[in-house]
Amino acid sequence: MIYYYWTTEEYHNDNSVTMSEYIEMQEDFTYHQHLTIDYIDGTYAEGIDCKGNRWGVHASGNGDCFNHKIEFDLLNKITDGNF
Question: What does pTM read for this prediction?
Fold first, then answer.
């Protein structure tokens, strides 16, 4: 798994807020694990990277409501590079 961590000055009420903030960050800049998110369900999402690989995305806290974590889980890897 791949992890992405960040801290905020304002607390998140729940991990759905964490997922929403992560998705907003995706739109604002090119993160090394940039995904086109095409499915969201609260704290879980799925997206496709630039190579066509599908990733599961899990939002959670990282100790308290000011520290956040996104976990990426490779669901479907494109092996031949042909789309």
Answer: 0.82
